[in-house]
Amino acid sequence: MRRTLFLSLAILSTLGAAPAQTDWRLAAPAASPPARFAASMVYDPVRERTVLLGGLDAGFQALADAWEWDGALWSPIPALSGPLGLNPTAAYDPVLGGVLVTATGFGQDGTWLWNGVTWSRVATGAQSPPFRAGAAMSRANNGVLMFGGGPQSNATNETWMWNGVQWTQLGTATTPSQRTHARMVYDESRGTVLMSGGVGGSSEFQDTWEWNGTNWTVLSVGAIPAGWSMVYDSSRDRVVRLGFDSTTSWATHELDRSIGAASPWVVRNAATTEAPTTLEFAMAFDAARAQTVMFGGVASTGTTSDTWFYETVVTAQHQTFGSGCASDEGVVEFTPFAGSRGRPWTGETLSLQIINAAQLPAVMMLGFDASTFGGVALPVDLGPFGAAGCELTIAPLFALPVGPTSWMLAIPDDPTLANSVFFNQLVALGAPNAWNLAFSNAGLNVIGSQ
Asked: What pLDDT, in 10s, does the model give residues 259-280?
């Protein structure tokens, strides 16, 4: 049964559309920040914390507090001296290693950084872009990117970059239209920034743009209504948005970045629970826990302090273990490609980079066991048998060809494969031992469903 299942992974083409295997879940923390809407949330990947900033309470009073979420608990943190207010312009700064906030219009002149301990002003007002409510801001490949903002009737289309030392207004060959309240995310697999939606003048924009470090390019991914929150899910290489669609239906949309720039926005129906219809909520992606975190907003019952998660029912995993031995080119091993390509998701391709076997015939051995092989405990030291320094780490059932520098395995789009476990190890012909064979490290794989 298991052998048949695995063979189907190796040789069958995609089976077609499968039910969504993502779900929304209401958290139950011991304590929560006060109810609010129009707050901002930023994930700090170094400290593995999600930071909640400002917003308005039910009486439309600007809030001055700040909070951190560690995956289980909310904790208050020091705030700036005055209210942060409506949609504070904030993003993670990869250069300084903290949450960057621009002047809020409530007296916090300049640009500020939260490093997990204290706030510090890193640029004065004169050294910062003019304060504009509704500006979009995101981590970028070499700093922080800001675009647009201002009142809807007079929004700007300026592009600014913070490099950890100073702000610089950038001139670009092409630029999106003047807009405010657009949404930005950083696509860490490609080192680019995506921006979508926003409003300007009498227009509500439904386009999606990509910043490559020097210029903006509009993407042919279909229209998406303005005003949604948006995150990049690095565990699945997808952009996630929640809000109303063009038919005024409440929905979760995803943009699958793994299948090319022209991949369209699609609706993803949750497996069992959909997030409630909520306006002006805050959202961020918690990479350490592979969860999109949503907080607050205005629901049918009023302003809320609810915390929701959006996550896969089964998360794909790829973990390497053991070590390789010397081939004629060096120690042979493999590493997963970055992002979702390096994990076995249903409907996608597991991709591994092969090292030190480019000119050697090689195969990838596959099996379901890494504890015993033929009654012998694994791993087996092959040195006494003529392959010095090498180990057999898995119990192979069969093998598939390997390219010079990579190996790929297409996983059918079948949710019944979720949680299936398999192991892999490469063997290459051409090594300085009696067997003339080199064995790589091994991989443990758990198939996830998206």
From this structure: 666 678 888 776 677 788 888 9
Separation between Cα atoms, residue 325 and residue 349, nearest integer Å: 27
pLDDT tens profile 48-94? 999 999 889 999 998 888 999 999 999 999 877 654 656 688 999 99
Q: Are 181 and 131 in contact (CB under 8 A)?
A: no
CA 147 – CA 195 distance, rounded (Å): 9
Q: How deeply is 308 buried, as exposed, middle or buried, from its count of CB atoms within 10 A (0-12, 13-18, 19+)?
A: buried
Quick one: which of 444, 322, 445 has its CA closest to 381? 322
Exposure string of 87-115, with b = 16+ CB inside 10 Å and e = fewer, is bbbbbbbbebebbbbbbbbbebebbbbbe
Residue reference for tokens 């290693």? 97
Banded pLDDT at 8 (limits 50, 70, 90): very low
Distances (CA, A) of 441 to 80, 82, 354: 50, 55, 11
Sign of the CA dihedral running 231, 237, 243, 247: positive
The DSSP string of 114-181 is: E-SS-EEEEE-STTSPPP-TT-EEEEETTEEEEE--S-GGG----EEEE-SS-EEEEP-SS-PPS-BS
Q: How far is CA 261 from CA 35, 182, 186, 194, 220, in A?
A: 38, 20, 15, 11, 7
Select from 314, 312, 307 the least CA-distant residue to 26. Answer: 307
CA–CA gap between residue 224 and residue 81 (Å, rounded): 37
User: What are the percentages of helix, strand and coil residues in the chain, rounded to 5?
Assistant: 5, 45, 50
Query: At 92, which helix (H) or strand (E)?
Result: strand 90-93
- What domains does the chain contain, in order, with CATH numbers? 22-312 (2.120.10.80), 316-446 (2.60.40)
Q: For residues 177 and 159, what is the distance between their CA atoms, to the nearest angstrom?
A: 11
The neighbouring-strand residues paired with 321 are 442
- Copy the structure tokens of residue 201: 């003048």
* Whole-prediction pTM: 0.73
Going by their DSSP bridges, the two strands 250-256 and 119-123 should be labelled as: unpaired
In this structure, the number of other CB atoms found within 10 A of the CB of residue 253 comes to: 22
Burial degree of 81 (CB within 10 A; 0-12, 13-18, 19+)? exposed
Q: Which of 405, 377, 402 is nearest to 391 (CA)?
A: 377
Please, are residues 88 and 57 in contact by the beta-carbon 8 Å criterion?
A: no
